[in-house]
Specification:
By secondary structure, the chain is an all-alpha fold. The protein has a domain of about 120 residues: Orthogonal Bundle (Rna Polymerase Sigma Factor, Chain: A). The protein has nine helices and no strands. Keywords: DNA-binding, Sigma factor, Transcription, Transcription regulation. GO terms for molecular function: DNA binding; sigma factor activity.
Length: about 210
């Protein structure tokens, strides 16, 4: 086992990651995956500070994906806590054969799908007729925009689990078909097909609402 770095060493490396300059003055602008890899190795060696940096870098991403997949803030917060605990107790499960973010996305999506299967909620989204009576054209447009966003969010939440996870990763997180295929361990053609079906369902939902 490699020696546990002291706090100053971790802080020095963290500054290098942020600025691209190391202690010897050479440029150390590594890729984000390489930076994560260093933090993972130090966290495995027992560095709580390295683990804290790793979590700080990715906790917003974890929550954002969970919220988009589940459509419920409370569930997303629970999933985020579950994922953080899993990272702390099961970081050894990361084999390092892929980027840390690939493994992390897989953990988050699996947790979300497990949560969705165990807790099925039906939420009523207010339609435009329930949004009140605007008194000005500007207020009317704002109410209309809010109602449209609510319907879109409800439509995404109503997608089948397999389509919703692909839609969130591809369409909302901006990952490529190949990246999503690796994360979900699916053929790329399956990812494309699920995304196409998700888009069709969402387009139909928005057309029916309009």
């Amino acid at each position: 086992m490699c020696p546990v770095p002291n706090g100053e060493e971790t802080r020095r490396h963290r500054r290098a990651l942020d600025t691209g300059v190391g202690g010897d003055g050479a440029a150390l602008r590594a890729t984000r995956d390489a930076e994560d890899g260093w933090l993972v190795r130090q966290a495995r060696a027992g560095s709580a500070e390295a683990f804290e940096v790793l979590i700080t870098r990715h906790q917003d991403r974890i929550f954002r994906i969970a919220l988009r997949v589940l459509g419920n803030r409370h569930d997303a917060e629970d999933v985020m806590q579950d994922v953080l605990i899993q990272l702390w107790t099961g970081l050894a499960g990361f084999a390092g054969t892929s980027a840390f973010t690939t493994w992390l996305h897989r953990v988050v999506v699996n947790r979300c799908l497990s949560r969705a299967r165990s807790v099925r909620r039906t939420e009523t989204v207010p339609g435009p007729s329930e949004a009140g009576h605007p008194t000005t054209p500007a207020a009317g447009r704002q109410v209309q925009d809010q109602a449209e966003l609510a319907v879109a969010a409800h439509a995404v939440a109503g997608l089948p689990d397999d389509q919703r996870s692909v839609f969130v990763l591809c369409q909302l997180e901006g990952l490529s078909y190949r990246e999503v295929a690796v994360i979900l361990r699916l053929p790329e053609t399956t990812v494309r097909g699920r995304l196409a079906r998700a888009r069709e369902r969402l387009a139909q939902a928005m057309e029916e609402w309009a």
